[in-house]
Amino acid sequence: MITTLLVANRGEIARRVFRTCRALGIATVAVFSDADADAPHVREADAAVRLPGVSPADTYLRADLIIDAARESGADAVHPGYGFLSENAAFARAVIDAGLTWAGPTPEAIEQMGSKIESKRLMADAGVPVLPELDPGEITDADLPVLVKASSGGGGRGMRVVRSLDELTDQVAGARSEAASAFGDDTVFVEPYLATGRHIEVQVMCDRHGTVWAVGERECSIQRRHQKIVEESPSPLVERVAGMRDELFAAARDAARAIGYVGAGTVEFLADETGRFYFLEMNTRLQVEHPVTECVTGLDLVGLQLGVAEGRPLPAGPPAPQGHAIEVRLYAEDPAADWRPHSGTLHRFEVPGVATTFTVPLGAGIRLDSGVEAGTVVSPHYDPMLAKVISVAPTRDVAARALAAALTRSKVHGFTTNRDLLVNVLTHPAFLAGETDTAFFERHGLDALSTPLATEPAIRLSALAAALADAAANRAGAKVLGGLPSGWRNVVSVPQRKRFTSGDTEHEITYRLGRDGLVGQDGVRLVEATPTSVVLDVQGLRRRFAVSAYPGLSCVDSSLGPVALVPVERFTDPAAQVAAGSLLAPMPGTVVRVAVEQGEKVTEGQPLLWLEAMKMQHRINAPADGVVTELGVMAGDQVEVGRVLAVVSAEEEA
Asked: How many C-beta neighbours within 10 Å does residue 312 have?
């Protein structure tokens, strides 16, 4: 019997495992880096052990420190979560050798599936269809496009699509570097790239007594950078193709039996529209998207993992799925800016209508699995996922509609997220028709799908509401004549002016508050204004705007869509100005490579350096032809957002 469980992970998955432990009467232990000292998962555990440092290599990837933490805390079992050491056979073996219960598959199974190269060969021997491995030295134009893929790990890291032979060497090197940083293993391989495939996976659960379940399939075809962001069960493709589910489940069970698998795992396939499928990999851990399977089966997969670890047998077969579940991953990132991750303080985080957190809603509803809450500081050192929002309903269209509505009404204040993109995907006709594949963004246009929910007129109305709320806040705090309207004059003078930026657009709001109310905004009448709420009558239609003001940021939420506004200071601080041609760090991170020297001539689009942030590498390119007149960083430097990385000047100005 497990009495105390240490979760060798952080954030959302640690909280998810703790939730099941509380239901089962198991005490919990968290581990945390210095960057996570105030994280929700630390507060929720019965005990917590510090891992000194902030980088994964110094903290969550240190098997020795985690086993020491288990001994120090009195834990008798370890759950790996996902990512970090969850698919590290040496870690699993060290846990077992330390006399602890390992809530995962055997080290031998992890080793067999841990190398995607070796696992594909093993699956081919077991009769599971696989894609061929290609020798990088023998690839020709006829083989393109190809996919360079890290042999270890997952989550889209260490994966690069190559469409031109002259890119192959650099992309292999980049994939190796990213894989080494994320997984401690720089082994990569190359295989054919199917640009329009369907990503279908089967959840398996196996006990120590020979029972092997294929619990259900999930479709995870909508991805960015080869990382899933929308997952659902059942798969629309599998629902449509007769006999495909039986074949998938049989292949998944064969894969699990071939390695004597124990515990929860996922067998991933790439399928075409006819229902033919090919083995991609087996994830020897719990998947990020496991809630959709839980929501259609009623199972607690973490509870089953712990039961299997204790030696308990599974029932003869899993329950039959009912209804439909869709999960989206809410990330701190800007899809319109090449998925640039964001970090900082999450001022407010509210998802309306949440029925459950980390557990299955009864019948239908919204489930929230989150690693953050209001006030959480999102670090640049880890994955930028904030939460998973899951909708379950009797039918797919209702699940999609409910999930889109919950996301639209959510209040997520502090930085840019992919929320608008997720809503646009969930409401897109192709998605609703089940036409989802790995080329969804290319086919339907990332620019269109990342369009803000609020239109330009809605943004201007939101900016007006922000200006009126700010005026109301000023009057509420006024010590003299606070009851007078903002900007009041006995003799009519110039209107009030306030400026905000939304993205790259600046909005100037001009208005007066006179005896007859709001003046200067045609068709708009002010009904009510407080520091946090503004009601406007817009051509006879009354709308309420909730306004939240933070230092340097004003967030306005309404039925027209969420809007984030940055107030423009009336007077610019000269010290804040930078030289023309300056390249500023778009995010906090680490400089991993510098490709140029000061004084070097460069051309537009030429890579100058690479930043690593939130487990991904981001290339900084020359904005125009010119000369590198300043280069203020070198490899290994830690930089904050806004730091000048380099200055590229026109050649005649050098």
From this structure: 12
